[in-house]
Fold this sequence. Notes:
Number of helices: 11
Strand order of the largest sheet: 3-4-2-6-8-9-10
Radius of gyration: 23 Å
Number of strands: 21
Shape: globular
Strand content: 15-25%
Amino acid sequence: MSAKHQHKHTTYKYLSAALALTLLVFISPLVSQYAQPITPPQPQTPPVETTVKKAPPPPPVATVSTSVQTTPSQIKLASSPVNSTVALEERYGLPTYPHPQYTYHAMMSAPTGILYSDNSSFLSRISTTTAWSKFNNTNKPPVIAVIDTGFALNHEALVNRWDGTQGNANWLGWSFVYNNNDPMAGLTYPNGTGVFHGTMTAGLAGLIDPNAILMPLMALDDNGSGTTDQVAAAVKYAADNGANIISMSLGSSVDDPYLHQQIDYAIGKGVTVIAAAGNDGCNCLSYPADYPEVIAVGASNADDTTASFSSYGANLDVMAPGTAGDVCSSFYTSTNALNAYSCSYSGTSFSTPITSGMISLLLQQYPGLSPGTVQAIVDASADKTAAMGGSNFTLQQGYGRIDVAKALSLVTIPPPQGELANKSSYSLSASTLQAGPAGDTTCVGVPGTTCSVTLTGPSNQTVSLGSQTLDTNGGAEFTWNASTLGLTTGNWTVTATWTDNGQTTTSSSPQVITISP
Length: 517
């Protein structure tokens, strides 16, 4: 059993790139222009202006003028899409070694035509309104980098939310499709099959955290597709320009080491990365969601069951609402980029920014939490759904459906030191016991803390796996052999205990391993 698919934060082993890429079917959207999302409560005090020091923009490049009609209130630097990977790599400081170019797609389904008046049902279900009542807005609002298609920059729900607008009204994120500072939707294909996608995801992130600052980064074109270099450049740009959170409602079926390198770069700079699980409805998490250090988000229905289209797997973290009729957001059309809304779409694309908004609330209330600690809090605070059957983790539901208020409250008790990354119960046969290591357990949490792992057997036998200090990535791996340890058949529990520098201890919930004859 591969350690990579048993837990997060283990040693990452890159697999050969698969040739088949995930294809998404897009159908022209059905739009409800009167379906207004619920208006969150206004902050009691004005939002604190961001003081993030932005890196200077990349040097200008030659552009080809287009005939696209521009919006008067925005500066337009129109240009043709950039296809040269070398230009992208050199322009944004990416590594220039040869690597494959994979295609990434927006993670949404075809429209349904379901109309719904507001978001009150799902907001209440994930305790958002309760979290708002606890919200402390005295700290600097986090910056959420939304890496997606273009955006309706003048939409009424978004126009005052963009990163840079408080200091420079003409500086609105960046386009890695056009290589300029205008990530506006519809410049090439006003009726493209994914032209509205970025507007919807940004709207949901901003809905959950009313104070969050949104950094619009266009890495997918109007049809919802982008390349390895475009997405990787957006990740690096976000990390270098003050983002606290990166939200990616996109994915591919292929392990992409080049993009993975930039994600780890961002996490190393303290940026929490969230990605969509995928819409293939199988044990086949999309990349980058399947990387253990990325918070992978699946979609739940209005009854907290897993949406039929939601992909799953051992690296799934949580679920969040993501189905048509239950989730509404800001929308873009070629005839209405100012106040259109839609409730017609489903996808893990929409579960992802909802989770990003929750993390933004968390980081504003408790600045300085590391990405590893944020991930542990997200997982530990999730509500266990009926479909989980009392388990702490399942492949289909991860750790459960997100709960915003619980995530905020969990930090006050204090935040957990980590998690035990044996993600699900599994059986070990006698032949497996003889073949080699039967267990591979990782402690995940705050770097520098000490983790001890103990196995407890069916007759209360206790076996210690010893203690290790979590490395700079917040992980410590314990590899063990059940046969060598003399574990008898039956159910064994695995428990981890963390000790920080102040000698405060935190224990994980026991996880069950079955040793079969």
